[in-house]
Amino acid sequence: MIELNSIRKAYQTGSQSLIVLKGIDCTIEEGELVAIMGSSGSGKSTLLNVLGLLDDFDEGSYVLNGQNMDGLSEKAAARYRSDFLGFVFQSFNLISYKTALENVALPLYYQSVPRKERQARAMAFLTKVGLADWAEHLPNQMSGGQKQRVAIARALIANPSVILADEPTGALDSVTSDEVMALLKEINSEGITIVVVTHENEIANQCDRIIRLKDGRIEGANA
Amino acid sequence: MMDRDTWLEIFHTVLSNPLRTGLTGLSIALGIFILVVMQGLGAGLETGVKQTFGDDAANLMEVETGNAQLAFRGRKPNRRIELHNADEQAMRSQMDSVPAWSRLVYRWGSTVRYGNEQGSYGLRGVDPDQREIGQVNVTAGRFVSDRDIAQRRKVAVIGGQVLADLFPRGTKPEQAVGSLVQVRGIQFAVVGTFNQSGSRWENRSVYVPFSTAQQLFSNSDVVSRVAIGTGEASIDDTRETTTSLTGWLKDRLVVHPDDAEGVWVDNRNEQAEMYRQIFGGIRLFVWFVGMMTLLAGAMGVANIMTIVVRERNKEIGVRKALGATSGSIVAQIVQEAVFLMLISGCIGLLAGTWLLQGIAPFVEHEFFSNPRVDFRSALLALGVLIFVGVISAIGPALRAVSIRPVEALRDE
Ligand SMILES: Nc1ncnc2c1ncn2[C@@H]1O[C@H](COP(=O)(O)OP(=O)(O)OP(=O)(O)O)[C@@H](O)[C@H]1O
Ligand SMILES: [Mg+2]
Asked: Taking a C-beta distance cutoff of 8 angstroms, is the pair A160, B321 a contact?
């Protein structure tokens, strides 16, 4: 599903260049649930953004779903994102003036799906994450765990092959963290590849595999 | 794609800071309001002036005589100059082809009588070409003909106001044709009626054949005035003709070349040109002022959109991560700006129209009549609003497009 070969990336700050990814080689198979761990500043988010086509890389090659992602245009990246990828963020990133239902339906808007169908599908996914009764609520009327479940429903609605989650439980207490993790595992069991960036061992241990980043390189992998 | 979600987002932008939106909207509404009201007042002035000075064709010259002020070739100053039939004929034969030519004799305050009703009207002895020259709108019957002239027939073409005054209420123009009226005590047959919309004086006149009028109502063979249609001739050509004709007339009628009052040729082309320039200037000024106010409004909208984009930096990043293309982001911002412009503009347009309609009945004046918003200007104003809306959205939209999803998503 995902193949990275010697991915290198540096950030240019003024005259200085900070090399964040110093040659990442890794393969993630279809249907895997993988955790990325590492100390703060080790490049986890950077790697996830590269995987998510939200950021570009300097060297190496990235093959997603059999297609080469080198030198993609903005437009093509947006296209692949909307066709293959779903995102879940630490701070949920729901749109504050849209109801849960509208938030979940948003990706379909950009795929020009008719409104009726958008609404119906969004409702189905809200039901799946157990929030059917909260469809008409605004994000600020929901708890963190609920918001993250709405965000997961939004990530799922466009039928992605891969879900990329950057510290999805970082802003949640341990009970709600477990609920969210259980939801991700359930989704994974339906065949969707999931990559989770996390700091927490309890979360990482529930995954099939842990990729540890240190100083811009993969430290080691275990099953 | 303009569905409910698009509208929801537009409303969110517009309502997220009501004060800011309200102030900007007000400045746009005010711009359009000023534009509409001033445009309407300009139109009112134009209509009023046209009504007062008549709506004769502009492509014409008029020859008139008066009192010569200067002594010349042994003649005393302050003498009356007259244009006789022989002068008129000589004048005509020395001119190149003319598209239209009408001699006129006037008798103001002529009593016209029908049955027991009578009134005082302007009597005009004219040639058939007067119909074209004066753009006479014949509503029934016919105008003065060549045969009327040749046979000195006692026929009359009466104005709409004469018809309304003298004939029984509700008489249709066709019904008046064929009736007999007394003009200055002499019986004339009504052969036609005319009506000049928006002209106060013309409708209070009666046209009769020139030859008949000269024979019956004037004691000499004097021609009061000659109207010469200039057809398609350019303004420069008519200026040239005016100069040469004036010279010829002064020579023939023995008037000093520097005498401004003995005989003159009034070039209406030039007057019309002057009016065109004056009203063109007024229009330009109105648009200029309106545009400036609109420009201020547009900057307000651009400002709002810039703030909206900045406030929603993160949201735009999220949208991009969820599959929004640059095109859809630009479309959203442009739609919001145009919507804001259009709504405020329409409010200004309605308020301006409403004000003009409200004051119209109270401001009727000799030089001012029927102020109104014409449909074309309103459409043009709306077009300008949309255009300005798009322009004002370009900057903020480009800024939104340049937002990279990663940067917007970075958790601080
Ligand atoms: N846009 C940027 N410009 C410059 N430096 C950046 C930028 N984004 C990230 N960095 C730097 O790159 C390094 C890796 O950042 P990254 O966000 O990938 O770390 P992380 O592993 O996700 O850390 P955390 O656990 O704190 O989220 C950090 O040193 C960070 O300061
Ligand atoms: Mg991070």
From this structure: no
- Cross-chain residue pair A102–B321, CB shorter than 8 Å: no
DSSP conformation letters of chain A: -EEEEEEEEEEEETTEEEEEEEEEEEEE-TT-EEEEEE-TTSSHHHHHHHHTTSS--SEEEEEETTEE-TT--HHHHHHHHHHHEEEEETT----TTS-HHHHHHHHHHTTT--HHHHHHHHHHHHHHTT-GGGTT--GGGS-HHHHHHHHHHHHHTT--SEEEEESTTTTS-HHHHHHHHHHHHHHHHTT-EEEEE-S-HHHHHTSSEEEEEETTEEEEEE-
Answer whether B323 sits within 8 Å of A93, measured CB to CB: no
Give the ligand 1 atom nearest the CA of A47. 18
Q: What is the DSSP letter of B77?
A: S
Bridging pattern class, strands A2-13 and A33-38 = unpaired
Task: Per residue of chain B (412 residues), give pLDDT as tens.
Answer: 567 777 877 887 777 778 878 888 888 888 888 888 888 888 888 877 776 665 556 788 999 999 988 888 888 888 899 999 999 999 999 888 788 999 999 888 999 999 999 999 999 999 999 999 888 899 999 999 999 999 999 999 999 999 999 999 989 999 999 999 999 999 999 999 999 865 667 889 999 999 999 999 987 899 999 999 888 888 888 899 999 999 999 999 999 999 888 899 988 888 888 888 888 888 888 878 877 877 887 888 888 888 888 888 888 888 888 888 888 888 888 888 888 888 888 898 889 888 888 887 777 776 777 777 777 877 887 888 888 888 888 989 998 888 888 877 776 5
Q: What residues in chain A have their Cβ under 8 A from chain B's Cβ atoms? A: 45, 49, 52, 54-55, 74-75, 78-79, 81-82, 87, 89-91, 93, 95, 97-98, 102, 105-107, 109-112, 115, 154, 158
Query: What does each C-alpha distance from B135 to A196, B64, B162, B366 come to in angstroms?
Result: 87, 20, 18, 21
Q: Whose CA is nearest to atom 22 of ligand 1?
A: A45
Distance of alpha carbon B271 from alpha carbon B274, whole angstroms: 5
Q: Is B101 in a helix, a strand, or coil? A: strand
Instruction: Give the nearest partner residue to A115 out of B4, B318, B323, using CB atoms.
Output: B4
ipTM value for the complex? 0.89
> Model pTM?
0.67
Tokens 């002499």 sit on residue: B186
